[in-house]
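Q: What changes when iron/sulfur cluster is included in the input?
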Amino acid sequence: MSGKTLYDKIWDAHVVQQDEGTCLLYIDRHMVHEVTSPQAFEGLRMTGRKVRAPQRTIAVPDHNVPTTEDRANGIENEDSRIQVDALDKNARDFGINYYPVSDIRQGIVHIVGPENGWTLPGMTIVCGDSHTATHGAFGALAHGIGTSEVEHVLATQTLIQSKSKNMKVEITGQLMPGVTAKDITLSVIGHTGTAGGTGYVIEYCGEAIRSLSMEGRMTVCNMAIEGGARAGLIAPDQTTFDYVKGRTHAPKGEQWDAALEWWKTLKSDEDAHWDKVVTIRGEDIAPVVTWGTSPEDVLPITAAVPAPEDFSGGKVGAVKRSLEYMGLNPGQRLQDIEIDTVFIGSCTNGRIEDLRAAAAVMKGHKVKPGLRAMVVPGSGLVRAQAEEEGLAQIFRDAGFEWRMAGCSMCLAMNPDQLAPGERCAATSNRNFEGRQGRGGRTHLMSPQMAAAAAITGRLTDVREMMAPEPEPA
Ligand SMILES: CC(C)[C@H](C(=O)O)[C@@H](O)C(=O)O
Ligand code: SF4
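A: The predicted holo structure follows.
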């Protein structure tokens, strides 16, 4: 018998009951936001049930909240207001952990969880949100669930699941200057396609992954879902333990020691069986941008817009439509594409390290006149830290709007939206038609690249903005 993968180990540690094909899994953390939870709580009310483990349930409004400083005045849009009000009431009525809009810890659920120490290695974590994969960066089995499953987890703290297959994505060696975690995760999807991970849980490994900070690892795992996978995982190591230690809800004292002992066993065995393996050399990854309306439509910034004939099968028609929607012509240099808007934020790239990286590019520069540019920290705590470090001032001086925390322009559920035809350099994770507003055009990229685009007003190779390497003596 072969050894176990990290996924196998976490799975086995959480099986409550095994039936043919499916299992009942225990859930350690249930994160909740306002979009996918109202009917679930209503279901509990109708059947007179309580939340089974309120201490394991964490709620925060993020998708529908305005990000302007006057947001204490309330939400104008009725649908948005109803959802956020419902979460306020449900959190109070059911006694779960809650970070309301007025709390400095409020933010995007996938940033709030790790930041406050709710997200820990070896856990099972679910949320009615596809980007729950983010938490896999800690070596937790984390994935999105539907609203009826949200109700099931609220009521029972368990989830019915069938096991996925094991896929290994190895990024060897080191990243070149100007290349980031975002370029890794986009390049993997460019390589495997958006269906490449279907039916699998991906474990990301290799030297380039090991060298990433926790912020970078979260960026990588965040987009596992965009590659079709059920979840993304990175084995915990000293970087993980250092990040977790001392956080509000992380274990302390003897409990920390006991947890650490278990966490250190959380890695795939040498002889584990992989159903699929993808290997990419870190040195081969370039700063990339998306040109189309799928996250797999990704190319190095030095490339040109492809033609439909460059593809085969159903993709030919898809690319044709995509180029039409995006207002692009085959052969056009990506670096010549002019933008109207820059959005730095989201659960992919709204953490402190992302803001540091963007600010480092912006320092001493200005947003090109006529552009709309905004930085939306992923949480109130990220915002406060960025203010303390002087990053907020750099962004403001450069001409960026400095916003309050939320999903913001990542998706069109709140006032931060693109107008039809507007083109945006965005650090988020989805570039679907209408994602950032009806008719809006999205180019996905890293925070560094988005900052570079803000300066020039077009898609730009961030390496041109970087100080040259000193000549060897
Ligand atoms: C609204 C929510 C259910 C959705 C998701 O599941 O991911 C959103 O967060 C997104 O990014 O599209
Ligand atoms: S920031 Fe974007 S991707 Fe993340 S949870 Fe919010 S809407 Fe979804």
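Observations recorded in class: The chain has two domains: 6-276, 288-463.
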